[in-house]
């Protein structure tokens, strides 16, 4: 197998990940990739420099203790099982105002669909209606994806539900905990908010030019001074799962689930996605009060429409179609 540089390191890391029951020897690696033992040692040193924790034991070989937490393109793509998402550019920024703003700027310069902006910290993270999303360094996964869907403007709200499902399924895969999707954009564990997303749309005339979908997932507990006073209290994956969580593995799981649903929607329309979202939510059939632009609307949730609207049956049989709002 005549591989060089990054390709060799990617394969070595994959081998280490697969070897969950022990060590892999330097001799075995050298034979697999037709390189010297010294070259194996140098590649392992580079992987360590990227932040991967790799143990070396004489006469045993190498063992991966923990994958790197740096969310650089090289690390994110190592072992990433997607065709588009993350394969067309990963823009890693240690600190940024907002990943969505950075992604929107890239989209205006014709960055391809599936391009990512990912950061360790956001100083101006945003939620719906201009709310602040607290994004301290190392505590969460903050990522935005550029999309160029062939959809009508009135269908764009479905992207929020798609992001919701992808985040929930990634959380489930990594933690083993099945969360709840709260309309329109939150992911909850035991009633606490662990993730939220923000969809921003650029219209070119009467068609969708591009969409930026940003998500924030709380991986580690927020510093107490940053815990906001919200209607829905925040929590983190590590608190809920009571174990260490890799942001790299979480991001990779998220991208795989996002690509799956995005491509399925392209092939089959919105119906399968809406069915899955309803499986992950507990809102259908509930009596709710929803705050919409200062007005409180009450009723029973009957369904979610094919374009992502919440259907609320109010007094006198009046049906309300809600694009967004805050459940009180």
Automatic annotation (TrEMBL):
Its EC number is 6.3.4.15. Acts both as a biotin--[acetyl-CoA-carboxylase] ligase and a repressor. The lineage of its organism: Bacteria, Pseudomonadati, Thermodesulfobacteriota, Desulfovibrionia, Desulfovibrionales. It holds the Pfam family BPL_LplA_LipB. This is Bifunctional ligase/repressor BirA. Residues 26-45 bind DNA. Belongs to the biotin--protein ligase family. The keyword Ligase applies. Keywords: ATP-binding, Biotin, DNA-binding, Ligase, Nucleotide-binding, Repressor, Transcription, Transcription regulation. Residues 74-266 form the BPL/LPL catalytic domain. It comes from the Bacteria. GO terms for molecular function: ATP binding; biotin--[biotin carboxyl-carrier protein] ligase activity; DNA binding. It catalyses: biotin + L-lysyl-[protein] + ATP = N(6)-biotinyl-L-lysyl-[protein] + AMP + diphosphate + H(+). GO terms for biological process: regulation of DNA-templated transcription. The keyword ATP-binding applies. One of its GO terms (cellular component) is cytoplasm. SUPFAM superfamilies: Class II aaRS and biotin synthetases, Winged helix' DNA-binding domain. Gene3D superfamilies: 2.30.30.100, Bira Bifunctional Protein, Domain 2, Winged helix-like DNA-binding domain superfamily/Winged helix DNA-binding domain. Biotin binds at residues 98-100, 122, 126-128, 193. It comes from Halodesulfovibrio marinisediminis DSM 17456. The gene is birA.
């Amino acid at each position: 197998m005549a591989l060089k540089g990054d390709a060799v390191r990617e394969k070595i890391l994959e081998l280490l990940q697969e070897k969950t029951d022990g060590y892999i020897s330097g001799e075995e690696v050298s034979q697999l990739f037709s390189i010297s033992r010294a070259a194996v040692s140098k590649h392992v040193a580079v992987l360590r420099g990227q932040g991967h924790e790799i143990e070396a034991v004489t006469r045993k070989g190498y063992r991966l203790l923990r994958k790197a937490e740096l969310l650089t393109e090289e690390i994110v793509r190592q072992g990433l099982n997607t065709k588009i998402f993350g394969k067309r550019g990963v823009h890693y920024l240690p600190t940024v105002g907002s990943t969505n703003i950075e992604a929107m700027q890239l989209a205006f310069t014709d960055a391809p669909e599936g391009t990512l902006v990912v950061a360790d910290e956001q100083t101006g993270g945003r939620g719906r209606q201009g709310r602040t999303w607290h994004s301290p360094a190392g505590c969460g996964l903050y990522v935005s994806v550029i999309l160029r869907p062939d959809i009508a403007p009135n269908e764009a709200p479905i992207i929020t539900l798609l992001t919701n499902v992808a985040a929930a399924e990634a959380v489930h895969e990594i933690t083993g905990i099945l969360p709840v999707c709260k309309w329109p954009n939150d992911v909850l564990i035991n009633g606490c908010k662990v993730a939220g997303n923000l969809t921003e749309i650029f219209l070119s005339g009467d068609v969708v030019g591009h969409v930026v979908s940003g998500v924030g997932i709380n991986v580690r507990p927020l510093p107490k001074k940053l815990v906001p006073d919200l209607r829905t209290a925040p929590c983190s994956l590590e608190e809920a799962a009571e174990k260490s969580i890799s942001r790299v593995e979480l991001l990779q799981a998220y991208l795989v689930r996002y690509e799956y649903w995005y491509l399925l929607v392209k092939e089959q329309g919105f119906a399968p996605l809406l069915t899955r979202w309803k499986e992950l939510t507990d809102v259908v059939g509930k009596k709710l009060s929803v705050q919409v632009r200062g007005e409180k609307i009450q009723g029973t949730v009957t369904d979610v429409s094919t374009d992502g609207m919440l259907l609320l049956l109010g007094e006198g049989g009046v049906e309300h179609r809600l694009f967004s709002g805050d459940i009180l």
